[in-house]
Design a protein that fits this description.
By secondary structure, the chain is of the alpha/beta class. About 40% of the residues lie in helices and about 15% in strands. Strands 1, 2, 3, 4, 5 and 6 form a six-stranded mixed sheet that branches. The longest helix is centred in the last third of the chain and has 28 residues. It starts with 5 loop residues before the first strand and ends in a 15-residue tail after the last helix. Bound molecules: flavin mononucleotide.
């Protein structure tokens, strides 16, 4: 297969060269070794507001706020995989990242089926599992399979650089990138041989009846 595979990585940390960056750099190395092209975008230090539910994206196919979210949309569209990584803030993902993801997923109507997702949480001590679950929700509402690792994708550290000495955490991230590379390539072969799964027309019910 002659396809160039691409992974888009979103870094939800506002800190330059923080612990989340360490993880993404380690994952990027593995992707590169596997011949996958990586684009790594730090969103946690950008000025990104939340969704205002205006519905403009339904008409225009893009967000009414013309910021980095609309720049990320075409990158996401051509990506075979998406990694979203966040520092843990009060047992949750960084709010700027969440604002970005809400708007990115809601405002884009291209098919995300079988793009592989992976999420990563980075904390001093607690809240990784809750953050991991929170981030995975974007994938599982978008027909995106999730790459997993040998542990839940969490790493520990408080001050910049400390993640590097969480040996098991770093190993978990490397395994995650290897598994994700394999999954991306396997899905490409599967698509070639079997095509994408059949899709039914969406039947929204809104719990009214
Ligand atoms: C506002 C704020 C809230 C935080 N909340 C938590 C938390 O709930 N649990 C935790 O273990 N660490 C918490 N931390 C620590 C960060 O998760 C930790 O320093 C992490 O390494 C930051 O990643 P970064 O260097 O990629 O930004 C918090 C930090 C900040 C600034």
């Amino acid at each position: 297969m002659n396809k160039e595979f691409k992974v888009l990585m979103l870094n939800g940390s506002p800190r330059i060269n923080g612990n989340t960056t360490i993880v993404l750099k380690a994952m990027e190395k593995i992707f590169t070794e596997n011949g996958i092209v990586v684009e790594n975008v730090q969103v946690g230090n950008k000025d990104i507001r939340g969704c205002i539910a205006c519905g403009t994206c339904f008409e225009k196919g893009k967000c009414v706020f013309d910021d980095i979210v609309n720049e990320l949309a075409p990158k996401f569209q051509v990506a075979d995989g998406l990694v979203i990584a966040s520092p843990v803030y009060y047992a949750s993902a960084n709010a700027t990242l969440i604002a970005c993801l809400d708007r990115l997923f809601y405002s884009t109507d291209f098919d995300k089926t079988m793009k592989v997702g992976a999420s990563v949480a980075c904390a001093r001590r607690g809240g990784c599992s809750a953050t991991f679950d929170e981030l995975n929700k974007y994938f599982t509402i978008a027909n995106m399979p999730i790459a997993s690792s040998q542990y839940w994708n969490s790493i520990h550290g408080r001050e910049k650089g400390q993640a590097e000495i969480d040996e098991e955490g770093m190993q978990t991230m490397r395994a995650l990138a290897r598994n994700m590379s394999f999954l991306i390539k396997s899905i490409a072969l599967g698509k070639e041989q079997y095509g994408l799964p059949e899709k039914e027309q969406w039947t929204p019910t809104h719990f009214i009846r």
